UniProtKB/TrEMBL annotation:
Protein name: VOC family protein
Pfam families attached to this UniProt entry: Glyoxalase
Domain (VOC): residue spans on this chain: 19-151
Keyword Iron-sulfur recorded: no
Keyword line: Metal-binding
PROSITE patterns, alphabetized: GLYOXALASE_I_1, VOC
InterPro entries: Fosfomycin_Res_Enzymes, Glyas_Bleomycin-R_OHBP_Dase, Glyas_Fos-R_dOase_dom, Glyoxalase_1_CS, VOC_core
Length: 155
């Protein structure tokens, strides 16, 4: 479903974005972050067969860790040891968020990309197709990266 704005541009209709699929954070110290999210906050870390096949090598090398929140949202931690905050005072800006990902039905993905382009929103990366599905990355008005993604279409 699509809606039109007063300017005539099409937009995604309420309900097209189904849920937050995952949140990806860049972290400077992977071990400290794993301890924080897994031990202190009590989130379940995905291990063994729980790790998506596309991330097994990155998880095994210690570059990525995946946690699941109580509502089923995946929290991806990406190790960036050289990462410096934009400002040493974390109250001034978000400093570690990488992007927010919204899930959409596979049959609506191409239309979502068209809506982004029609509204002259610069695409940062994509559309891409991976074993985990399709995605497109773009920025919100404050420069925070947003992803719209879908699962692979059933064959």
């Amino acid at each position: 479903m699509l809606s039109n704005t007063q300017s005539g541009n099409s937009v995604l209709a309420p309900g097209n974005l189904r849920k937050v699929h995952h949140i990806a954070l860049n972290v400077k110290d992977m071990q400290a972050s794993r301890h924080f999210y897994g031990t202190i906050l009590g989130l379940h870390e995905l291990t063994g067969d729980e790790v998506p096949a596309t991330l097994v090598e990155l998880v095994a090398s210690g570059k990525v860790a995946n946690f699941i929140t109580p509502d089923g949202t995946i929290l991806d931690l990406f190790g960036e040891p050289e990462l410096l905050p934009p400002d040493p005072n974390p109250e001034k800006t978000f400093t570690r968020a990488y992007h927010l990902a919204f899930d959409i039905e596979p049959e609506l993905f191409d239309r979502a990309v068209a809506v982004i382009r029609e509204n002259k929103i610069a695409i940062a990366h994509g559309p891409v197709t991976r074993p985990t599905g399709r995605g497109v990355y773009f920025y919100d008005p404050d420069g925070f990266m947003i992803e719209i993604r879908c699962d692979p279409e059933a064959s």
